[in-house]
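Reviewers of the previous submission asked for a worked example of the structure-prediction workflow described in the proposal, so we include one complete record here. The input consisted solely of the amino acid sequence. No template or homolog information was supplied to the procedure at any stage.
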Amino acid sequence: MIYTVSYVVVGDKKKYPGGIMNQYERPVMGEEIRLGDTLFKVMEVKRMLPPSDDFEFLHVTIQPLEENEA
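From that input alone, the workflow returned the following structure tokens.
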């Protein structure tokens, strides 16, 4: 399965603009992910469309981790 993931950052949108990427692992709520040089926590995962032909489109809300949390 290939996931097309739209990452939306909670907080400072100028510093962390978010993005869209294809990946082979489905994001899971609560996990930590690294985008660029920044570590984020996954806050919410929503399916945008039903899976089709081995593709699934997801909307994922993430929040940057504070340095003391990382």
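The two ends are 29 Å apart (CA to CA). We consider this example representative of the routine output the project will generate in years two and three.
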